[in-house]
Design goal:
heterodimer; A: Jelly Rolls; B: Rossmann fold
């Protein structure tokens, strides 16, 4: 398995969090993609490979996806069937970033994904071909960046508002709203339009991300008492419930996955080979 | 809203014991006094007490005798004590601590303030941990943001539409912010300091006593204020050190208790070692020293980014008690900052008056709030 992580170039860094290449030649049944508040563009580099995504849980029928697709805002994690014939590039947008670049309201994008061409139109076809024809992965990254750099970069107050809210997701909502100058109703509407989430749900995801980062990078003993206190979970049961609801895994399952696979230490928004209870049964 | 008990896992206490036993003492000599910082002899005696005589489980039991709660306000978990008054009339009173103390600042005044006076007047006490402190979530925020959460706690979670607020240090700033942001909910506030000059004052316009106070603060800043600059600019640098060493943490905190109590010869006559240790334990077991000092940086940031509400003049009726050991602010300064209905200068006490002079502090609160 090969993972290449590419931080976006400066002009795009307000919109795109990262671009990652994953080559799936390792034997594992699933990859679990965790919510981070932004949408994803995924490009399959093997033209004839079909991928499967379980949008309604591992027991339900998966959706087929091919070529390039965009997954909508994630309230929960998205489970992919691992495909050893698959080589993908995943473009992770920042909250509000995809909307600002493409002006696509996030709520029209289905959670399980939609062909990218349906959202981005014919202009994306050329980009897709260029990515496929690139001689190296680095060239593919450049082609993707080139495509989004052609999008308009006009100053948008709406984007600034969401950026401010995202940076201050840990502050009282009333304070954030007052600083933006919007009414509460208008602000929530804008937040949903740009990110797909209500500000409250976004804060919940952010809170859990903090825990995930600690667990991902922990060495030695985990001080659960301090961890629960730090991020305001009432007790371990509350954390486990939230963890499961958002990531599909319990904290213990997540730690098992971290321990079992070194790749899991590298990327915070994916869990390779998640040990789902359902699968074990 | 859920009731909450403090139950520190044994492994955290065992780890603390090991760290205390393995303290690497800086070679400061034994007769340094407090001139260059925490007194070496005191700190060694303090550490010995912590290791050999202090009993966390006993103190934890005492803390748990009070009703603790946790609740989520605006996606932020707040810890608070809610102790009902025993009077015929019980006025809700929000008591707000500061740095480097914690909700434990008010433990000794709880039984005094919830016991009715001769007219049957007492207080329902609500004693929160500021976010970033103790058992509240570690989200360092400025005083205006904290005030928003505390007002929601009082009005939406506890159903008090009209209440009093009181505090010192950060607790004073948050009380002022409450009074300015929510005058419809705050009937009156009581403060043990009204805030200090922040560098934006035009001293030429001020009265003689205020100019003297300004000079006092300026000198104080050079002699004592470095902690503030450090915590306002590079809190994290300090946070890593203090979160890793219990004696280092104690040294940083105790020096403030000494300095802000008028530099007493014998600190034990102001605070028992047990109560100082319990306060430090609240930082240690929750690992909140870093988030608590980070609040200084949030406060500084808000000051340059358009200012804080608490810098405005408070119009809500305010009672001010100036205890000994506190920076000696004059009446003119009080009138500039708040609408003072009373201003009492007391000849004992400290910056932490609720801990060092619980009788006097409680009397000041009763005297003021009874009248308004």
């Amino acid at each position: 398995m090969q993972i290449l992580y590419h931080p976006p170039q400066n002009l795009l860094s307000d919109y795109i969090q990262h671009i990652v290449y994953v080559n799936g030649t390792i034997d594992m049944p699933h990859i679990n993609e965790l919510p981070e508040g932004g949408v994803n563009l995924v490009i399959e580099l093997n033209e004839h490979t079909t991928n499967y995504v379980y949008s309604e849980g591992i027991k339900k029928q998966p959706n087929k996806i091919k070529k390039a697709w965009i997954t909508g805002f994630q309230k929960q994690s998205l489970i992919y069937k691992n495909n050893q014939n698959s080589r993908i590039i995943s473009v992770r947008f920042k909250p509000g970033g995809f909307f600002m670049l493409t002006k696509t309201p996030i709520n029209v994008i289905p959670f399980a994904g939609i062909e990218a061409i349906e959202i981005l139109g014919d202009s994306f076809k050329a980009c897709y071909q260029e990515v496929l024809n690139s001689k190296s992965i680095v060239d593919s990254f450049k082609a993707i960046e080139g495509y989004f750099l052609k999008k308009s970069f006009e100053f948008s107050i709406e984007q600034k508002v969401i950026e401010f809210a995202s940076l201050n997701a840990h502050q009282p909502l009333d304070w954030v709203v007052e600083k933006t100058g919007y009414s509460q109703k208008h602000f929530i509407h804008l937040h949903k339009k740009l990110t797909g989430f209500t500000p409250k749900y976004f804060q919940r995801v952010k809170r859990l991300q903090n825990v995930i980062k600690v667990l991902q990078h922990h060495t030695g003993r985990i001080d659960w008492f301090a961890l629960l206190n730090r991020y305001g979970y009432f007790d371990q049961a509350h954390l486990s419930k939230d963890f499961k609801a958002i990531t599909g895994l319990t904290p213990t399952e997540y730690l098992i996955a971290m321990k079992a696979n070194n790749y899991n230490k590298e990327i915070s928004d994916m869990v390779f080979n998640p040990p789902f209870q359902e699968i074990r049964k | 809203m859920k009731s909450f008990k403090i139950e520190v896992p044994q492994e955290i206490l065992d780890d603390l014991k090991t760290r205390l036993q393995n303290t690497r003492w800086a070679d400061a000599g034994d007769d340094t006094g407090w001139n260059l910082g925490t007194d070496s002899s005191y700190l060694k005696a303090f550490t010995n007490h912590w290791l050999n005589h202090y009993n966390w489980r006993k103190e934890e039991g005492k803390l748990n005798q009070f009703p603790h709660y946790k609740t989520m306000v605006d996606e932020t978990t707040l810890h608070f004590l809610h102790v009902k008054g025993n009077g015929a009339v019980n006025e809700p009173l929000l008591l707000i601590h500061g740095w480097p103390d914690s909700f434990t600042r008010f433990l000794k005044v709880i039984p005094k303030l919830n016991t009715p006076d001769e007219n049957g007047f007492a207080f329902d006490l609500i004693i929160p941990s500021i976010p970033g402190f103790g058992f509240s979530e570690q989200k360092p925020m400025n005083s205006d943001q904290t005030a928003i959460l505390f007002n929601k706690l009082m009005t939406e979670k506890l159903g008090y539409q009209q209440y009093f607020a009181a505090g010192g240090d950060m607790g004073s700033t948050i009380s002022k912010s409450l009074a300015i942001q929510f005058p419809e909910n705050i009937s009156a506030i009581h403060l043990t300091d009204v805030g200090y000059p922040n560098g934006s004052e035009n001293w030429a316009e001020m009265s003689q006593p205020e100019q003297e106070f300004g000079q006092y603060i300026q000198q104080w800043f050079f002699k004592e204020g470095a902690f503030n600059m450090l915590q306002s600019t590079k809190p994290q640098t300090l946070g890593f050190a203090l979160n890793d060493s219990p004696v280092g943490l104690a040294s940083w905190i105790i020096e403030k208790f000494h300095g802000w109590s008028g530099y007493p010869e014998n600190l034990d006559s102001y605070y028992s070692k047990d109560e100082l240790i319990t306060n430090i334990m609240v930082y240690w077991v929750t690992q909140t020293i870093n988030s608590s000092i980070h609040i200084y940086a949030e406060q500084a940031k808000a000051t340059w980014q358009g200012g804080l509400k608490s810098d405005q003049k408070v119009e809500v009726p305010t009672g001010v008690s100036l205890f000994a050991g506190e920076a000696p602010f004059p009446k003119e300064w009080v009138d500039r900052k708040v609408t003072a209905k009373s201003f009492n200068v007391l000849d004992s006490g400290s910056h932490f008056a609720a801990m060092s002079s619980p009788e006097l502090f409680s009397k000041e609160l009763f005297d003021f709030f009874r009248k308004v």
